[in-house]
Design a protein that fits this description.
It contains nine helices and 14 strands. With 295 residues, the chain is of the alpha/beta class. The protein starts with 8 loop residues before the first helix and ends with a helix. It holds the Pfam family LysR_substrate.
């Protein structure tokens, strides 16, 4: 049986993700090409490695035993290749990040643009996703979230200044429906609701002195993207609760008006967060060092 170490690389990635689709995205091939490679490996080994259904992929007992033996070898190879960065003028490698959409657009994009100019041999992969992703389970280097939703066991570094939210609508909407004077008054208005991809509703939070309130709003539209919420407000659907930085150009032009400003103080802004690993890759160490000087 003529099998080389490289023949197991696709197997390890599929086993890690338990998904041909996710593995194909990682590898850069089509799911059918990855599936074909796995079938060829199974034929050579004369043993089934995965149980496949239309909804799930799982390791067989033989596949689990093979993965437990082979995966550490690939980890050792990756670590050894990363250590070669000690002998290069600048490090090479891949950094994988996950970011909420607004954090990625407002803070991460300019950072990565400057970073890649200084480190052209490092590839940065960014997943834009408003879901609360487990970056450890997904084997990502770091994530970008507002500080208040970051788990306490993570290290976190601020990416930018504090943020404020704004409740906005068009002048025409307020002329027709009036303006709320306190947060609970929002329950009498048409509000554009935001819902995470998980299905969890996003609360509208307010704070004044020692008083804190979360208002459960109602309205004719539910979205999963703050840019769309802002567009809906501009089109007169109702009130939107968005980052003030997003709405600022329209507030200045008079296309939108903000209300309840005295209930919306500054909050800790977007942070890069990551697990406290003992041996981060050379590429990610370079990214963290660059972030310190970039700020």
């Amino acid at each position: 049986m003529s099998i080389k170490l490289v023949d197991f690389s696709y197997f390890v990635i599929v086993a890690k993700y338990r998904s041909f689709r996710q593995a194909s995205e990682d590898i850069g091939l089509t799911p059918s090409a990855v599936s074909h490679s796995i079938r060829q490996l199974e034929e050579r080994l004369k043993v089934r490695l995965f149980n496949r259904t239309t909804r799930s992929v799982s390791l067989t007992e033989a596949g689990r035993k093979l993965y437990d033996k082979v995966a550490p070898a690939f980890d050792d190879i990756s670590l050894t290749l990363d250590e070669l960065n000690l002998y290069r003028d600048t490090p090479m490698g891949v950094i994988r990040l996950n970011a909420v959409r607004q954090g990625g657009r407002l803070q991460l994009a300019p950072l990565i643009a400057d970073f890649t100019r200084q480190y052209p041999d490092i590839q940065v992969e960014v997943q834009m996703d408003d879901r609360l992703v487990d970056i450890v389970k997904a084997q990502l280097d770091a994530g970008v979230r507002l500080n208040r939703v970051i788990e306490k066991d993570m290290k976190a570094i601020p990416l930018g200044p504090p943020v404020r939210y704004a409740v906005v609508a068009t002048p025409e909407y307020f002329a027709l429906h009036g303006s709320p004077t306190e947060p609970q008054g929002l329950t009498q208005h048409q509000c554009i609701q935001f819902r995470y991809p998980s299905g969890k509703a996003f609360g509208w939070y307010f704070e004044q002195a020692s008083q804190r309130e979360e208002v459960v709003v109602r309205g004719p539209v539910v979205v999963d993207d703050l840019d769309i919420a802002l567009d809906m407000a501009l089109n007169g659907v109702g009130l939107a609760y968005v980052l003030r930085e997003m709405a600022e150009p329209y507030l200045k032009s008079g296309k939108l008006i903000s209300v309840l400003d005295d209930w919306l103080p500054e909050l800790p802004g977007f942070h890069l967060y990551f697990p406290n690993r003992k041996h981060p890759s050379a590429a990610f160490r370079a990214f963290l060092d660059f972030l310190k000087t970039w700020q």
